[in-house]
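Researcher: Can you fold this with FE2/S2 (inorganic) cluster in place?
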Amino acid sequence: MTPRREIRFLLNDRPVHLTQLAATDMLLDHLRLDQRLRGTKEGCAEGDCGACTVLVGRLGAQGLEYAPVNACIRALASCDGCHVVTVEHLRGTDGGLHPVQHAMVEHHASQCGFCTPGFVMALYALWMENPHPTEAQIETALQGNLCRCTGYAPIIRAGLAMGDYGTTDPLMEERAQVAAQLNAWQDGARVEVARG
Ligand code: FES
Ligand code: FES
């Protein structure tokens, strides 16, 4: 089979095709520097603080499955065939705040705000699976996220309340379309791209 000369993935609602990249290129740099999606923050740049949390969706045994990842240590090349979701893509069904964001606002869960996009994305991954989690489930979901300001209690309260602000969002409605695109890209080809 002829090698494929590009990697491709969905970034929020649009396809990205890259023909040049290095094995050491990280997803966070691509998002912030190339795509200018700067809602995803760089804190430690070594996988400890969670400020760079995004969701990565891939087709698995159960269909389309999303997981929170630290974009600062996620190799860009490994996103081939995936759906990368950043905080810019979050919205409610009415186009306003997403239920997770709404809960964060109502519970005063942000102060300086630097950690907030990461917490929102980590809670978003939990909300997708379980919009009404227990405190223990929230603590587990947020164990990779650090905040220097809030003391965590307001963030936990936001997590406990997030399901009260809604249990569906536009991304859930787009799932079939996203899965069809990722499925169409599954060619089994070896990938060879030039070093960027
Ligand atoms: S920037 Fe701290 S985990 Fe990525
Ligand atoms: S709100 Fe300032 S670090 Fe979390």
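Model: Folded with FE2/S2 (inorganic) cluster in place. The chain has two domains: 7-87+174-183, 99-170.
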